[in-house]
Write a structure and sequence with these properties.
Blueprint: H1 14-28, H2 41-69, H3 94-109, H4 113-142, H5 144-152
Helix pairs in contact: 1-3, 1-4, 2-3, 3-4, 4-5
Length: 157
């Protein structure tokens, strides 16, 4: 991914972090005795579907808002303004939250407890390697406007 000079400097697409860990966890299920949550598959699929819809809706709403506002979605490109409406009223990171919900939905739906257990590590990586860079960039670029927004709206929920 080409990184623009006026950007947060994130070099690796965040969706690939989620996808890579999910696949690693699901593959690990083949080699470890803990292979199931021990819950009826219909309940797992229903819970997974519900979480998937919620996560996709959150991501699509946030990305759609960025497009309507005329700013870039990828963190490797310049941010032209701070989004504070729509899902950004409640969380500063609705796209990453949506990806986390989709990750959880797939881990649950595929009955993957190991994949599910990796989610906190994924969130830690996203927090330290992506969100922290984005926040430093936005604070440097937008100054007090971003600091006020940051003080009013939580990072995740």
């Amino acid at each position: 991914m080409a990184v623009e000079p006026d950007s947060s400097g994130v070099r690796f697409p965040p969706p690939f972090v989620y996808l890579g860990a999910l696949l690693l966890g699901l593959v690990a299920e083949r080699f470890v005795t803990l292979r199931s949550f021990g819950i009826d598959w219909r309940l797992l699929v229903a819970a997974g579907a519900l979480l998937f819809v919620a996560g996709a809706a959150k991501m699509l709403a946030a990305a759609g808002l960025f497009r309507r506002l005329g700013t870039n979605v990828p963190p490797s490109q310049p941010t032209t303004l701070i989004a504070t409406t729509g899902p950004y009223r409640w969380t500063r990171n609705p796209m990453y939250l949506g990806m986390a919900l989709i990750y959880a939905s797939l881990a649950i739906g595929f009955d993957g407890p190991i994949a599910f257990a990796l989610l906190p590590l994924v969130l830690l990586a996203i927090q330290t390697q992506v969100i922290a860079r984005e926040e430093r960039y936005l604070e440097a670029k937008f100054g007090d406007d971003y600091r006020r927004y940051k003080a009013e709206v939580r990072r995740w929920l």
